[in-house]
Amino acid sequence: MRRLIAVPPVLALVLTACTPTQAATPSFPTTPVVRTDLVSRNNVDGTLGYAGRDTVAGGPGIVTWLPPDGRIIRRGQRVYAADGHAVPLLYGRTPLWRTLSAGMRGRDVRVVERNLAALGYSLDVDDRFTWATAVAVKAWQRHLGRPQTGTLAAPDAVVQPGPIRVASRVARLGGPASGPLLTVTGLKRQVVVDIPVDRQQLAVKGGKVTVTLPGGKTTTGHVTAIGTSAKAAATGQTGQGTETATIAVTVTLDHPKAAGRLVAAPVTAGFAGAVHKDVLAVPVEALLGQADGTFAVEVEGRLVTVEIGLFAGGLVEVTGVAEGTRVQVPKP
Q1: What is residue 183's predicted lDDT score, i.e. its pLDDT?
Q2: Higher pLDDT residue, 92 or 242?
Q3: pLDDT at residue 238 greater than cutoff 60
């Protein structure tokens, strides 16, 4: 007769007990013993979002247009408008910090020339603002509907490393353009996880991570950054700061579209733990706890005692039964 035996909490399951000489009477579906690699997962809560948060500040004038939240802005497209004039986006890592004109040289000149060339204007890309550069700037200004001066002032463009996504608007229409206007991010989807310091060995740069999204859908990612500074949650109790300290780990999604339209969401990040390669495994539900504390699987109406190993992904490692043997699996 069957009775229930509680397995230690680490196994997180309750198994059906049988006497060594008597198998279960009901007939259940069977599944073969498989040879596979098992990888245990250590789950940590995280937050899905976008990488590269930044604030766009404007220049002189009055704000006359702002993009809606969620808008994707690429090279040459307007980021905002001041006094009725569009201020476009340029790609680069050197900001415009002076008014550029013929005869000037520098990295900011190269940024402007590289972007004009990418937008289809004819000029040599170097670090010199030449007559040809001024001609290209005038043509660009004509396209934008701006005065064709052939010079470029710092507030005439917004420089970001790449395409941006508008996270939120800070300024308002009719307000001054001289302060913060927009909060923007990059387009890369990422998950930020605060891992307890005593478990930081889970995170290895480049390591694979399984990400569970709201609704239970899963996707994969890899670790792209590991913080070097620990922070502690505010507990209000002296001495607990070191016990609650965490480090921030950034995980970039391998398939960004898997997140759908989610802008931000709580997720669970599964970091690889123990790895057992080329082992035999059965579904956890196939295990039967026996009265003497051992485990068995049911094969053709008889119980076969097995030794168990790693639990991972709904499977359990077993020895004592041959590959391909069909074992019974109780219906859920």
Answers
A1: 97
A2: 92
A3: no
Shared domain for 73 and 100, answered yes or no, is: yes
Distance in angstroms (rounded) separating the CA atoms of residues 323 and 33:
5
Spatial contact of 331 and 283, defined as CB atoms under 8 Å apart = no
Distance CA 80, CA 92 (A): 18
Going 121 to 123 to 128 to 133, the CA torsion angle's sign is negative
DSSP codes joined into one string, 58-125: --SSBEEE-PPTT-EE-TTSEEEEETTEEEEEEE-SS---S-B-TT-BSHHHHHHHHHHHHTT-----
Q: Which of 79, 49, 57, 21 is nearest to 256 (CA)?
A: 49
Give the pLDDT confidence score for residue 234 in this predicted structure.
57
Residue type, 80: Y
The encoded tokens of residue 145 equal 């509907």
DSSP state of 235: -
Tokens 């690429």 identify what position? 74
Pairing type for strands 14-18 and 288-290 reads parallel
Q: What is the pLDDT of residue 68?
A: 96
What's the domain range around 236? 43-50+189-273
Tokens (6 digits) for 139 = 């043509």
Tokens linked to 268: 């669970």
Residue among 311, 299, 308, 316 nearest 18 (CA): 299
Domain identity same for 321 and 265: no
- Would the pTM of this model clear 0.90, i.e. be above it? no
For 27, other C-beta atoms within 10 Å of its C-beta total 8
Same domain, 262 and 161: no
Angstrom distance (rounded) from CA 134 to CA 40: 61
- b/e per residue 46-70 (b: at least 16 CB within 10 A): bebbbeeeeebebbebebeebbeee
Is the Cβ–Cβ distance between 114 and 127 less than 8 Å? no
% of the chain residues with pLDDT over 90: 74
Q: Are residues 137 and 152 in the same domain?
A: yes
